[in-house]
Amino acid sequence: MKKQNRKKVVSKVLIIMLSAITFSCQDTTMEEVETTTAVAKEQQNFKKMSLAASSDLARRWAPIHYRDVDATGTYAEGGKSDYITAINYDNDWDGNNNWNNLPAYSNSLAAHCYYSVVESNTHWFITYAFFSPRDWTDNPLLYSLDQHENDLEGVLMIVEKNGSSYGTLKGAVTVSHSDFFSYVPSGSSFVSGLESIDGTLQMRDYNGELHPVTAQDAKGHSLKAWPQHDIDGDGIIYYPSASGVAQIPSDNYDNYVEYKLVDIFESGGLWDQRFNTQLFSSPGGGFTGNDFKTGGANAPWAWNDGNDAIVQGGEFATDPAKLADNYFDGVGNFSRTYTDNKYNAAAGGIVTVYQNCNYTGYAIALPTGNYTLAQLKSYGIVNDDLSSVRLENGYKITMYQNDNFGGESVVITGNNSCLGNFNDKASSIKISVQ
Questions:
Q1: How far is residue 346 CA from its own chain's centroid?
Q2: pLDDT of residue 107
Q3: Could you tell me which of 203, 202, 51 has the C-alpha nearest to residue 119?
Q4: Count of alpha carbons within 13 Å of 425, Cβ hemisphere only?
Q5: Rounded to an integer, what distance in angstroms lies between the CA atom of residue 378 and that of residue 356?
Q6: N or C terminus of the chain: which is more exposed, having fewer CB within 10 Å?
Q7: Are 48 and 101 in contact (CB under 8 A)?
Q8: What's the whole-number mean pLDDT along residues 158-179?
Q9: Contacts (Cβ under 8 Å, ≥6 apart) of 23
Q10: Does residue 9 have a pLDDT over 70?
Q11: What is the torsion angle, in degrees rounded to the nearest 10, for the CA atoms of residue 266, residue 268, residue 271 and residue 274?
Q12: Using CA atoms, how far apart are residues 154 and 222, in angstroms rounded to an integer?
């Protein structure tokens, strides 16, 4: 065998090594490009709303709000303990003095409502929250059990985008202490999902537009759709102000008081105050308070219904598409990809998997990535339990029969209402750009 020239051999080896490095770099670059493309696709679709458009949207669907009033009892303050007002009504953001400062400010309780707008590709989710300095009772035996300083309860309006400026109101979920109640307006396509619908959301004309009607009872201020709560004798009817006015009720029977809408995300506002230890016990959203029960009230990003199972604490505000997708079926074209979510930019996903056919049962949204069975279980997905999927455009999901991406597989590139031969067979999943 003829020997090769040593210089030529070294030269060939160097060329091979350089080629390998080049191809390796090219592979890495391609992976980086695909990852960057996936992230970009997840974040694009729709531009964020302007502050003015967000404010207009919140005003459009803001509720006409009934507030029952009780003027009797040691802590009623002649009914003023049931008025809605600003959290900093006493000119500070201290949650430990709101109970005791009420008498001094009882004639200046200007009406406020806090709101936030979270946006997905297909829906707007608008949270409204009403504050009172006291959650109280007129039963002396329950003073130390039921009363607490600060009270904030509210409602989530689920609005479907339809090409118009304000969309169509499809459903609502209210906060009643530690329970959530769901409602739909007449004509909505939404039907009961994992939670049963509790009633009809009444609509009423106000300045030429139909607005939902909500109500709170006296003392504890549980919030439901009117007339599940109603005014019993004395009470106030609040209306959203178109001009930013915060009116003060003339008495306990005032049937027209305008409330000011306040953006939770405004600079220095409620969201920014989450680090204020005089107002919140932690950024998690639990109010301070040192009269009677310690604490007891929560900000929207801490609202919770302990019986909901799949919907976790705070997701009322931080992942409202998840709540809506699980509370209701018949949601139609429904995206779990957020285009604007200041509470939690990482919430949602580009693929939603459903327990049952026709997008029913539990609904879990997933971002791009590879998911073993253990990872799926960490999201609440049961083995061999998936039957339908929704995907954002440009993505695909590969389902595998076995854990760790083994066994039979199926590639799905669009919405699939029933997985046919792969129904209840998935044990691991890969989600990627097409």
A1: 13
A2: 97
A3: 51
A4: 16
A5: 19
A6: N
A7: no
A8: 97
A9: none
A10: no
A11: 180
A12: 9
Cβ atoms within 10 A of the Cβ of 411, count?
10
Task: Please state, rounded to an integer, the average pLDDT across all residues of the chain.
Answer: 91
Task: State how far the Cα of 389 lies from the Cα of 365, in Å rounded to an integer.
Answer: 10
**What pLDDT was estimated at residue 310?**
86
In angstroms, what CA-CA distances link 302 with 296, 297, 380? 11, 9, 20
What's the confidence (pLDDT) of residue 236? 98
Task: Locate 224 and state its tokens.
Answer: 């439901």
Q: What are phi and psi of 81, to 5 degrees?
A: -70, -10
Instruction: List C-alpha distances in Å: 83 to 49, 93, 96.
Output: 32, 18, 19
* Of the candidates 107, 122, 113, the residue with the CA atom closest to the CA atom of residue 77: 107
C-alpha span between 171 and 191 (Å, rounded): 9
Q: pTM above the 0.85 mark?
A: yes
Largest Cα–Cα distance of the chain, in whole Å?
111
> What is d(CA 85, CA 262) in angstroms, rounded to the nearest whole number?
11
Residue 33, pLDDT > 70, answer: no
Q: How many CB atoms lie within 10 A of CB 344?
A: 15
Q: Kindly report which listed range (26-35, 74-83, 102-111) carries the lowest average pLDDT score.
A: 26-35
Strand-pair category, 191-192 with 179-184: unpaired
Token pair listed for 156: 């989530």
Residue type at position 140? P
